[in-house]
Small GTPase
Amino acid sequence: MGCASSLPDRNSARSGGLNSEVNNVSDSKNLRVKLVLLGDSGVGKSCIVLRFVRGQFDPTSKVTVGASFLSQTIALQDSTTVKFEIWDTAGQERYAALAPLYYRGAAVAVVVYDITSPESFNKAQYWVKELQKHGSPDIVMAFVGNKADLQEKREVPAQDGMDYAEKNGMFFIETSAKTADNINELFEVIAKRLPRPPPS
Ligand SMILES: Nc1nc2c(ncn2[C@@H]2O[C@H](COP(=O)(O)OP(=O)(O)O)[C@@H](O)[C@H]2O)c(=O)[nH]1
Ligand SMILES: [Mg+2]
């Protein structure tokens, strides 16, 4: 079971595509960025996207097959807008070979683990290394411990996530797609960390 962010989305612009350029900017006030989610299967990547884009949490929806695409625009206080073109990948091993198609050229990578699963924490570190080797050199990376609502089942201390993220120059946040805790904050912090093009 999982969140299906793969439902057709009429509001999505499909112009980005797999090969869209990093920070494909319409103008200096309106950024358009390609964002990829990576992490073990079941950590909640699709639920995070669904929560962010639709404000919903659907515990009964489907597992992501391959990858799916959604977009969402946010407005920042300085009156700039950031349009995220979100590629939600499937975590299953059989799709791992496809991952470079999604993270290549991505301006932002969100690497997700589940705070109740040390295995998913290890897998997240694998993705960070993969991105360091093969991603864009100036990629903005977020390290996300999801399912923060499951405190009683926690197996990965927040400090471990924080330490790892700091060592690797990423920002760290714990989220819950279920309660919506820190989901908007995650994308706002990313938006603020994006390199800004010079005003034209
Ligand atoms: N308690 C809790 N469950 C979650 C959360 N996010 C996702 N889930 C559940 O975790 C399972 C996998 O979620 P999904 O988004 O499909 O994971 P993905 O494979 O990483 O895309 C589903 O059963 C979700 O209902 C969360 O923040 N809290
Ligand atoms: Mg999924």
